[in-house]
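dumping this here before i forget
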Amino acid sequence: MMSSATQLGASPQTHAVAGKSVVMFVDDEERILRSLKMMFRSDYAIKTATSGQAALEIVKHEKVHVVVSDQRMPSMQGVELLREVKNLSPNTMRLLLTGYSDLQAVIDSINEGEIFRYISKPWNTDDIRGTVAKAVEIAHSLDQIEIPAVQTEEESAERILVVDKDPDVAAMIKEIVEEEFEQLHAVEWASDLNSIFEILEKTEVAVILSEIHLAEHDITPLLKTLKRYNPHVITMVLTSFRDTGALVNLINQGQVHRFLPKPIRRGLVAKSLRDALVRYRNLKATPALIQRHQVEEAPASAGGEESPVSKRIVGFMKRLRRNFQ
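structure:
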């Protein structure tokens, strides 16, 4: 009699090789699964599934260190699968494999799947090998620590930074915070780079809600650098800007926590802020969890020269990290 996973569409599985990490690839195209299995089978015990339902059956019954899922599959999309994997096995590292053009998949992977990396099709062999290896390494390190079964939800006073040129946006966020959290948290507003630096230097910020563009500046290098040097700070993008490539880079290089579209939806912002504050407290309470949010190194610019703004940001972040250590 076939196993339930095979009946649901999984390829026949073999028992994991003793001592090898378990990596599962999920895709409804068998040829892609064969290619990935050939690429990784010498390094890991490989599981494959041709549907989200089959993958979940495996996760329910076996230890899986990393799940790499395609997005576009019938009956269950990749982000839906990774969301369920997060609930079933929080220490399993989650990677989404799909095309850059799938904007909604990118947004959902931020807001629902909380993925570690977004891998584009067609993939670069060296890149995907390195990304999976890093995910496996983190999964093993998480197995060695005791993670609280219940998230830390106790309220404590924290600071929230709104980065936006529009004062009405900052006023609305402040109003939401006052209503939802009974004026417990302080909201700061920055409308330019100098203001951002001044606020970050004088106080520790728990959550940042930021536009992608601020006046003539692209703010994404700041968000990426901030996460690299202060990984416990939770960043959320608040924007009408919908460039898929930029959002993918914010996942991989900035581990952005949520994408919040403009115009602002009060309920979504309130829920996202509550989730972000819980994550911030958990990272502060259990620093080992920060490994789960390691960022990918941003590629060097053409000619290898950093822009003056990027140099300023890196210098400031190094100084800031020393100040708060």
